[in-house]
Design brief:
Length: about 725
């Protein structure tokens, strides 16, 4: 709910309050963001900020208005605030833009187009007018009451008589006092996406993000600012994300007056948007939340928000068998039909034909763009295999990499100018491919038409939408500073058209694994391939890191062979299964080559997963042990009623002398009896919720890495187990 009274705006969600005021000079000043406070108390907060400063610029001879120390809602460059600002504007006249509050409006529909959050309960826009030019900047706030989330963005309207250069446009600025907080970002690389990283915030500025044209494996847009002692279960925390898939920026700085300034938005490195007269620019939405019970509390807010207000597809996600690691490029009608026979027997629900089915593609050097079947591999067309699969009541899925073009392709021979490249300089390629210029309307039309034809001709239920190279030579000439943004907006236009036309086709997002795991893609793809690395040791880190910002219901995890194709590390099949079950389970095994015993293990895994999968969506997910610093990852997922759930434990190293693991469960009903069991291992206890939460669950020592082989006892690293939790009675 939003109120604006006595010059103070208070935005309340279920458990949080966000307050700002408009100063006598027409700036919006941050007052408070945190746990909910009663309405009408804002004056207490204003007093606190009236400081007299020695070394600061001030407004209009008013020494109490120290610009460097004020906590603003949004700062414009060149107006006395020497900290990094949120917006830099310039025009050909070299004007300095003096933005002053004009009015506000509650409840108006937001101007965000294409990718956006949906289902907000309230909105407010603040209108700032430029004193010396016809430029308007609106600051928007949308409220998601139930998930304790607020989203923020800005709109710039150029009514002046000349073009306006936007050099920097952050979607959000949040100023607050520094009292020892730390910054937590999620970084990595291919096969090592979203590893948790903690940074001390010294008197400096930490800027990270991506300038690759994609949200990236190197730095996810999600981040947390938490109290010094905060952990998964304790401490005041703020979490942030961006509804955007392109180059992004996270900026956290601490100034000489011990203020923190937190900002996120489009990456400003090389950015310059040329806003023609009469036009407007809307920034991506920044999503923010507060929780007072540690990282789990902000993660749970984000999980709820993403499931309810970002992901649009609401249908069932099938358990899929993907052909990639099973056959790689060596795919054919015979192989896929054999896999389909076995997949049906084992309980899979979808078969996704990965790379290699189209053009003359036998490796990664050709054919991207030629989206018609390779007749040497599928002599009777893809319809035949699609029918074969669907006649078995399996969903039919197909891999596409629509944004790319190979030099060796019919598409390139016909339309080489569609590829992004700059003549006269050395060519840079990645995975032998170039990116298509999606800002060209002909390219967009070509993609929409060819993908529509594929969907209709082959009756496609599921698309794996891949993206395997980053940007290098940015096209766009005079407008190259806005090219990467326009590219992403063009991609969203294509996805918007296709998802509107085919609402039942599921799109799995993918970018060399999890390189574009972000809220922008999640608007169109309800699930994203978490990483190419499916080895459980790596996966436990990747999935845990991802869970800080994203619900397990959007993560696709595959059971794949041991030793792992990515790390060559060997792992027990049950461990692979346990880790893959924490999310959307699928597989890339060549099931036609598995022994009968292995097939039984995997069929059983699918059967068990079908019993827990209704918990995956909408669950309350908690990290009970921080495996980035400890030996175990422990995850608990409970359904909304707190009746049914599961705990998955991943134990990294076997230690000869070690205590039994004791796990304090969370979120149970104190007075209800719960059965916690793993019947395969004869483990079962019954206790009240209060006992399980306060005393904890003690696991027998043989769960810590000891596994019995047929004739000897082996000590094994990287083991996992899953326990079922079931409420039984009062
Ligand atoms: C990328 C994806 C993989 C697979 C291959 C196919 O690397 O991440 O899952 O689809 O492309 O070429």
């Amino acid at each position: 709910m939003i109120t604006f009274k006595d010059n103070i705006c208070q935005i309340n969600t279920l458990n949080t309050s966000y307050l700002f005021t408009i100063t006598k000079y027409g700036d919006a000043m941050q007052l408070y963001y945190g746990a909910k406070i009663p309405n009408g108390e804002g004056n207490v907060l204003i007093q606190k900020r009236s400081l007299l400063l020695v070394n600061s610029l001030y407004m209009d001879k008013d020494v109490s208005y120290g610009i460097d120390d004020m906590q603003f809602e949004y700062s414009y460059a060149h107006r006395g605030d020497s900290r990094p600002c949120a917006m830099t504007l310039r025009n050909e006249n070299g004007e300095v833009f003096d933005m002053v509050f004009d009015c506000y409006k509650i409840g108006e529909n937001p101007p965000t187009k294409l990718t956006k959050s949906h289902g907000h309960s309230d909105s407010i826009k603040l209108v700032f007018k430029c004193l010396n030019s016809d430029i308007i900047v609106e600051h928007w706030y949308l409220v998601y009451e139930d998930s304790d989330v607020i989203s923020r963005f800005v709109r710039v309207i150029n009514n002046s008589n000349c073009e306006l250069d936007i050099f920097k446009v952050m979607s959000m600025q949040l100023d607050m006092e520094y009292n020892g907080q730390k910054l937590i970002t999620f970084n990595g690389a291919w096969g090592r996406e979203r590893y948790k990283n903690c940074h001390e915030i010294a008197q400096c500025r930490i800027v990270c993000g991506s300038n690759t044209g994609m949200s990236s494996a190197e730095c996810n847009p999600f981040f947390i600012v938490g109290e010094q002692t905060s952990s998964n279960t304790k401490g005041d925390c703020f979490a942030f994300n961006l509804v955007y898939s392109g180059s992004h920026e996270i900026s956290v700085g601490r100034d000489s007056f011990d203020n923190l300034r937190i900002m996120n938005g489009i990456n400003s490195d090389g950015f310059c948007y040329k806003l023609a007269k009469g036009c407007e620019f809307v920034s991506p939405e920044s999503v923010i939340t507060f929780g007072k019970d540690g990282y789990n509390s902000v993660s749970q807010n984000m999980h709820k928000f993403i499931e309810n207000n970002i992901v649009r597809y609401k249908g069932t996600i099938p358990i899929m068998l993907n052909t990639w690691e099973a056959v790689y490029f060596d795919i054919s009608y015979e192989k896929v039909s054999q896999i389909a026979d076995k997949a049906k027997e084992m309980g899979f629900e979808a078969l996704v034909i990965d790379d290699g089915w189209f053009g003359v593609r036998n490796d990664d050097t050709s054919s991207l763009g030629d989206w018609f079947e390779n007749t040497a591999k599928f002599p009777n067309g893809l319809e035949q295999i699609s029918k074969y699969i669907q006649n078995k009541d399996l969903k039919f899925g197909i891999w596409l990499e629509p944004e790319m073009i190979s030099e060796n392709s019919d598409l390139y021979r016909k339309n080489s100018h569609w590829a992004i490249k700059i003549d006269g300089i050395r060519e840079i390629v990645g995975r032998n491919q170039m990116i298509l210029d999606l800002t060209n309307v002909d390219v967009r039309e070509y993609l929409i038409n060819s993908i529509s034809q594929i969907i209709e001709k082959y009756n496609v239920d599921y698309i794996k939408w891949d993206y395997n190279r980053r940007f290098s030579d940015i096209a766009g000439g005079r407008k190259s500073g806005q090219y990467l943004h326009e590219y992403i907006m063009s991609l969203y236009e294509i996805l918007e058209t296709l998802t509107t036309k085919y609402p039942n086709v599921i799109i799995e997002g993918c970018a060399s694994g999890g390189g574009r795991f972000d809220l922008g893609m999640l608007c169109y793809s309800p699930i994203i391939w978490t990483s190419d690395n499916t080895n459980p040791h790596s996966r436990a880190h990747i999935q845990d890191g991802t869970s800080y910002g994203y619900p397990i219901s959007v993560m696709i995890n595959h059971i794949s062979p041991s030793p792992s194709h990515q790390t060559a590390r060997a792992t027990l099949p049950q461990t692979v299964i346990d880790i893959a079950s924490v999310g959307r389970m699928g597989s890339q095994l060549d099931i036609t080559k598995c022994s009968e015993q292995e097939c039984d293990i995997y069929s059983n895994a699918i059967k068990n997963y079908k019993n827990i999968r209704n918990i995956i969506h909408g669950c309350s997910f908690s990290r009970l042990s921080d495996g980035f610093v400890q030996n175990d990852f422990v995850w608990q997922a409970m359904d909304e009623q707190c009746n049914n759930g599961f705990i998955t434990i991943f134990h990294k190293r076997f230690n000869t002398v070690s205590k039994s693991l004791k796990i304090k469960l969370t979120g149970l009903n104190a007075d209800i009896n719960y059965n916690v069991y793993d019947r395969n291992r004869n483990f079962e206890i019954t206790a009240k919720g209060a006992t399980l939460m306060n005393v904890g669950l003690v696991l027998p020592q043989n769960y810590q890495g000891n596994e019995k082989n047929s004739n000897s006892l082996m000590l094994i690293d990287d083991t996992a187990l899953t326990l079922t939790i079931q409420a039984i009675s009062k």
